[in-house]
Each structure stands twice: as structure tokens, then as C-alpha cells.
Specification:
By secondary structure, the protein is α+β, with helices and mostly antiparallel strands. A hairpin with a 2-residue loop joins strand 7 and strand 8.
């Protein structure tokens, strides 16, 4: 089962419809009330990334059921010329909200980096990305059609570091994060000229 795809933009266009479709999706699955609320909260977190982009931006959004997992997907194309990408990077770096902290801020950083950095997305190498500890959830080396960042892997890396009295800030962010405490995983994918951000949550459809 999959919802109709909705075009959402960082000026707020389509966000209300997308959230309504997420709510209707959860209701159609006859999920327990707690899981319905969780999906809505995850949708709100995902849309927060869209609103955080500092320049003109649009993406497709949909929700779907894959086995016992609900997936909320944000998909955007990166097929813009290098000059436009450079302009967006410049504007974004100058207009960055310094309050954009926490786990969602880290996820936003890697998503924005892929979208607006003038690199060949078809051969993206996470080593090029200087985003601090967000690399803890990255997969080393160049990738072509796979996910390059996973919340599940990030959580495991931070947990292991925390046990060695390291990554205290990242551990604190995980404990406070809505998305880290509700979602089973968040993956950032590269598929050709598209970048996908997918939130996964195990559900119990009625």
C-alpha cells in the first residue's frame, strides 16, 4: 500500500496535505493509536528538514507499507548545473540557522550536502563530507545506488563510543531525539540523480 505522491516545498507548499495523507495512511492500516501518533510525529520531523533548506527546494513525499514496516519517503532530484549548486551552497552556508542542532540537524547536514554540493552524485564518496560525527553513520567509500547513512548504524557507533566514554554529546542527542526514540531506522539513499531520505517504523496493521 502506498499513498499518492505529494510535491512539498520549503516554502510550506504541500506540507499540510502530506501530513494529512500520513494521518490517513495510518488510519487506513488500522494501527494502534500510539503508532498513529508516532507516524505523524515522524512525518513532522521529516518535513522539518524540508523547511530548514534555505533556498528554493522541492521534493516528492509518500508513505507506504513494506511488510511490517511503514516507510515515509522524501525524494529529490539533484540534476542542477554546477553553477546553481555552487550558488546554493554559498547561500546556504551564509544563511544557516545556528540553532539547527541535534540529531535532525545532523541528518539535515548530510541531506543538504548531497543536494547542494557540486560533486558527481553517481560516485559520491562520504570521505568528501566534512560533517563531524555524522560520519559515524556513514558507509565508507564511493557508492552508486545504495544508502550512505543509516540511523541504525549511527546509533550503534555512538553507543559503542559512549561505552568508551566518548561521543557524549552525540549520546545525549540520541536520548533526547524524537526520531531516534521512535524510528527503527532513517536512511539517506543515492539513486542516480535522486537523493532519498527514508524513515522506517515497524507497525502492527489491523
Amino acid at each position: 500500500m502506498q499513498t499518492v505522491k505529494v510535491i512539498i516545498k520549503n516554502d510550506g507548499t504541500g506540507l499540510e496535505e502530506a501530513l494529512d495523507r500520513t494521518t490517513s495512511f495510518a488510519e487506513s492500516l488500522n494501527l494502534p493509536q500510539k503508532e498513529r501518533i508516532h507516524l505523524r510525529l515522524l512525518g513532522e520531523e521529516l518535513f522539518g528538514i524540508v523547511c530548514a533548506v534555505t533556498k528554493e527546494f522541492s521534493a516528492e513525499y509518500w508513505a507506504e507499507l513494506d511488510g511490517d514496516k511503514a516507510k515515509l519517503t522524501l525524494e529529490a532530484r539533484t540534476n542542477m548545473d554546477p553553477e546553481k549548486k555552487m550558488n546554493l551552497v554559498d547561500i546556504s552556508s551564509k544563511g544557516r540557522n545556528e540553532a539547527n542542532k541535534g540529531l535532525m540537524g545532523r541528518i539535515f547536514d548530510i541531506f543538504e550536502y548531497i543536494m547542494f554540493t557540486p560533486v558527481d552524485v553517481s560516485a559520491f564518496d562520504v570521505a568528501q563530507m566534512q560533517a563531524g560525527s555524522v560520519q559515524m553513520g556513514c558507509y565508507a567509500g564511493a557508492v552508486t545506488s545504495s544508502y550512505i547513512w543509516s540511523l541504525d548504524q549511527y546509533r550503534n557507533s555512538v553507543r559503542n563510543a559512549h561505552e568508551n566514554n566518548e561521543a557524549e554529546e552525540e549520546w545525549d542527542e540520541l536520548e533526547k531525539s524524537i526520531i531516534a526514540n521512535i524510528a527503527d531506522d532513517v536512511k539517506v539513499w543515492i539513486e542516480g540523480d535522486k537523493v532519498c531520505l527514508v524513515i522506517e517504523k515497524e507497525v502492527h496493521a489491523g
